[in-house]
From TrEMBL:
It comes from the Eukaryota. The keyword Membrane applies. This is non-specific serine/threonine protein kinase. Residues 1-61, 367-420 are annotated as: Disordered. Its EC number is 2.7.11.1. It is an enzyme of class 2 (transferase).
Length: 420
């Protein structure tokens, strides 16, 4: 399959969506987390349905479409959907622009008869960096179809207006469930945590196993979104890159991403490997065990970086017990927890070649999840879904359009690589 850029950067013309995955992906921009809104059936030429629980083509192992199969929205359509981009419809803001909640025309209805609720990400017209992200989202997410990747439903490009439309993820981000505060939201029980990890790993494994490997480059808890059944989906492909050619082990690019999650070889040299994503997954494994953020300057000296602090605890069952998330209240199988900790250590190897493939990670997690000694299932109150997004400690910086306002990891451009 040939790979080439499918967009022209000149405005006031339609994007050429008949091309292939773009080779671009470096964005001189901070990364975004995501905001969400309800979804329902989308008419037009999209194969996707935004309605929760609605039927759609089933590709359990995922597929790469020959061309982006997306609905092209008119600006007027999205202007009406968001009530003229009204201030009280804002779900979040970021470097790309503003995200609004919206409703499509009432003629477009889901099977339950309700209107179609969407999330609309609107580019700041002065942000050329945002244009690159907009382009990357369509180039990658517009062609990648997998149960563990968030669906991009369509886009709009009219004059200087650039917008993206996404599906709704009812439960918001993993980050908010792990680190948010407030009595309205309960902590994730052990079995749900394993389910989320398996889903996220399957999504990342699909990207790595594609004919032309895709390096996600910004894997973190805030970019893992959850549907109504806590199925995990990876979101926000603004920093995604195509993997190296067969003759090379890595690609060299600007160092972009989120401190605390970025692999050490990438930060130091700008060399990006497929297994740089595996390191980020290892960080999320540690966050899932401890309930602590990858990077938190409010912690005592020596404990700001979670991986540096916790690594010595991951290989010893007694030490591990002391740093497990207190919200689990001890309701987890200690043997399985140790296996997750050991897998995290494997993923956090200092050299890319020492880390497992994501296929191996999926297999290990599925084995752990199949154990019969896991704790008794605990129900999670799903009363008011919106309250799940109202917790947090730090101010929100950048979001993508799939979940409402919430706390997130601080994302910014990483320091330049050291000279050789």
């Amino acid at each position: 399959m040939g790979i080439g850029c499918c967009f022209r950067s000149k405005k006031n013309q339609s994007p050429n969506t008949t091309g292939h995955l773009s080779t671009s992906g470096g964005i001189s921009q901070t990364t975004r987390n995501t905001t969400s809104s309800d979804g329902s059936n989308i008419s037009g030429n999209s194969m996707f349905s935004a309605a929760s629980g609605s039927e759609e083509p089933s590709y359990p192992r995922g597929q790469i479409l020959p061309t982006p199969n997306l609905r092209i929205f008119s600006f007027l359509e999205l202007k009406v959907a968001t009530r003229n981009f009204r201030a009280d419809m804002v779900l979040g803001e970021g470097g790309f622009g503003t995200v609004y909640k919206g409703w499509l025309d009432e003629k477009v209805i889901s099977k339950n008869g309700s209107g179609s609720v969407i999330a609309v990400k609107k580019l700041n017209s002065e942000s050329m960096q945002g244009f690159e992200e907009w382009q990357s989202e369509i180039n990658f997410l517009g062609r990648l179809s997998h149960p563990n990747l968030v669906k991009l439903l369509g886009y709009c490009w009219e004059e200087d207006e650039l917008l993206l439309v996404y599906e709704f993820m009812q439960k918001g981000s993993l980050e908010n469930h792990l680190f948010g505060r407030g009595s309205a939201v309960q902590s994730l029980p052990w079995d749900i945590r394993i389910k989320i990890l398996i889903g996220a790993a399957q999504g990342l494994s699909f990207l790595h196993a594609s004919e032309k490997q895709v390096i996600y480059r910004d894997f973190k808890a805030s970019n893992i979104l959850l549907d109504g059944s806590y199925n995990a989906k990876i979101s926000d492909f603004g920093l995604a890159k195509l993997g190296p050619s067969a003759s090379k082990s890595h690609v060299t690019t600007r160092v972009m991403g989120t401190s605390g999650y970025a692999a050490p070889e990438y930060v130091a040299t700008g060399h990006l490997y497929v297994k740089s994503d595996v390191y980020g997954f290892g960080v999320v494994l540690v966050e899932m065990l401890t309930g602590l953020r990858a990077l938190d300057a409010t912690r005592p000296s020596g404990k700001h970086n979670l991986v540096d602090w916790i690594k010595p605890y991951l290989s010893d069952r007694r030490k591990l017990k002391n740093i497990m998330d207190s919200h689990l209240e001890g309701k987890y199988p200690s043997k399985a927890a140790l296996q997750i900790a050991q897998l995290a250590l494997y993923c956090l190897g200092l050299e890319p070649k020492t880390r497992p493939s994501m296929k191996e990670v999926v297999e290990k997690l599925e084995h752990i999840g199949s154990r019969t000694d896991k704790p008794k299932e605990r129900r999670i109150n799903s009363g008011n879904q919106n309250t799940a997004y109202q917790r947090g400690q730090q101010p929100v910086r950048h979001r993508s359009p799939l979940h409402p306002r919430q706390v997130e990891s601080q994302s910014y451009q990483l320091p330049p690589p050291r000279s050789a």
